[in-house]
Amino acid sequence: MKTSLKFLAALLFVSSFSFGQDITKKIDSIISDSHQKNPNVGISVGFIKNNEEFYTSYGQLNAENSTKIDKNSLFEIASITKILTSNLIAQAVLDHKIKIDDYIDLYLPKEYILHENLKNKIKISDLASHQSGLPDIDFGKLIELNPQQPVSSVTEKTLASIINNCSELKDYGKYRYSTIGYTLLGQILEKVYHKSYDEIIRSKIIGPLKMTNTLTKDFNVKNRTTGHNPDGGIQEFFNWNITASAGMVKSGASDMVLFLKSVLNQETRIAKAAVITEKIFYKDEKREMGLGTNIVTDEENTLYSKSGDSMGQSSIICYNRAKNWGIIILLDQRNSKLRQNLLNQIYDTVLK
């Protein structure tokens, strides 16, 4: 009997190992094929399933440098930052600093003075699920003024002016993607923890997970990739400023896999916070939203994802808690169509 059990265990191990190899080979094949078709777009991918990690990457750090992109290469994760910020908001709930359905009124910096029509109206969960109805930053205008660093001129005074002059929430309760909402969430975190957003994310996510290649204010490192706009022109990384909590963290595939590993391990504090973000806070005929997290459900799977686009890079993170896998895709060019196509192809042909 013992021999039979040992044989069965060995057989299961080999079967699992082969299955894992089959998945990673297929993912690598898809990424390799994409790079052959788009040789000027650098790609870094990290994948985790049942705590086993896999990485693949193609391209160079820049045109003048023969150093190849790898799992530690630094990218702008852009709006994937929002999934980190929403996790910090959920951690604040676990810390009893806030309640997710608290009104934002008591948590805003003193510079913000809400109009009477807006008082006791907007909840923290509304900000995090993009349904606050607050006006947003005019990115089109900012890009015209400074195409390399469009948000460099945005300050607390700028934001206070936008919010203080708002007297009506025209689309409250309806989905509208919001940078200002996640900027306010960063400021709410600062108020309840009495620390800067930079200090908070370092102490609660980056530090505990030992994410040594995840950077905030200072990202002048040798393994930094080069950003490219859709036409292939070189694009600067965004400098850290007040809107940081909405999209300014820089990271790499290996560190984002560390984050995914923690999210999928239900015993960690980050996972317990992630479960809060995975609850449905908004739903219409087109989408379901958690806190900063897009939720897609089919017959067999529930996926949680968040994409990101800076002026020069694109990214997407996705995971399936029930099936215990997660993936991060990073591109050194702003190309939202390509990154979405890669995820769709990997999911449809490998993971589904």
TrEMBL record:
From the UniProt annotation, give the residues forming the signal peptide. 1-20
Answer whether the UniProt record assigns the keyword Signal to this protein.
Answer: yes
The record's section on InterPro entries has:
Beta-lactam-related, Beta-lactam/transpept-like, Beta-lactamase-like_AB/R
- Domain Beta-lactamase-related spans what residues? 29-336
Entry annotated with the keyword Metal-binding: no
Q: Which keywords fit this entry according to its UniProt record?
A: Signal
Residue spans making up a coiled coil are none
Question: Which family is it part of?
Answer: Belongs to the beta-lactamase family.
Recorded hits in PANTHER family, A to Z, give:
BETA-LACTAMASE-LIKE 1-RELATED, PENICILLIN-BINDING PROTEIN
Protein name per the record: Beta-lactamase
Organism name: Chryseobacterium vrystaatense
Traced from the root, the source organism's taxonomic lineage reads:
Bacteria, Pseudomonadati, Bacteroidota, Flavobacteriia, Flavobacteriales
